[in-house]
Amino acid sequence: MILDSEAAMQAGLDALRAQDAVMARIIGEVAAQGAGPPLRKRDPGFAGLAAIVVSQQVSTASAKAIWGRVVERFPALDAPTLRGADDEALRVCGLSAPKIRTLRAVAEAVAQGDLPLDDLAGYDADAAHEALVAVKGIGPWTADIYLLFCLGHPDAFAAGDLALQESARLAYTLETRPKPAELLTLADQWRPWRGVAAKVLWAYYGVQTRRADAGDVG
Predict the structure, then answer these.
(1) What are the tens digits of pLDDT across the range 181-190?
(2) Residue 79 half-sphere exposure, CB side, CA atoms within 13 Å?
(3) Which of 5, 7, 60, 200 is deepest in the core (most CB within 10 A)?
């Protein structure tokens, strides 16, 4: 099952409630605030992964502007198109040299059949993650965000995401923000619904941030 419908999301939420009392509590809290975890599925394939690469380490506004120029210059953005584009055409869109190298590496891996982007939803989450990070320039966060938001993989989990780490700290009353390896250990109890748990934690982080901004520490 992939996270492509409210029914799939509900199945994951029900399973998490049964597996973990803390998760059951925060699912209730976010629901009470009308902040239930959204599907937010993006387009899969090369363009979807490229958009995530573009958004790395820049502001949302900058990522939107750069991606807009990329799509305007290359309306049918796929692996063959990127492989055939010259560096200058990519640079004028606002892409840095490292991002150009990453996109070319992805395009080459797709063209050679080493990275079957559209098939990864059917892989075990760990195997899908490893297939992505095997491409030079694709890090763990990028891999997991692609699996979760572009493919709707129910067990993808971005342990390196700071918002997830802080949300877990708050939910589980931890003294410090868990490191990625520590968060992965905590997340083992949520398999095979770690992707749903991630969406719940993001929603919970949003609720807690709004409470803090409003001065409500209760």
Answers:
(1) 999 999 999 9
(2) 18
(3) 200
Measured CA to CA, the distance from residue 87 to residue 157 in angstroms comes to 33
Q: What is the pLDDT of residue 118?
A: 80
Please tell me the pTM assigned to this model. Answer: 0.89
Quote the tokens at residue 206: 């949003």
| Calpha distance 156→159 (Å, rounded) | 9
Q: Rounded distance, CA 96 to CA 105, Å?
A: 14
Q: Which domains does the chain have, with CATH numbers?
A: 6-40+156-213 (1.10.1670.40), 45-150 (1.10.340.30)
Phi and psi based region of residue 94 (left: phi greater than 0; alpha: psi -120 to 50; beta: remaining): left
Cα dihedral 41, 47, 52, 58 sign:
negative
What gap in Å lies between CA 140 and CA 184, rounded to an integer?
12
CB atoms under 10 Å from CB of 77, counted, come to 20
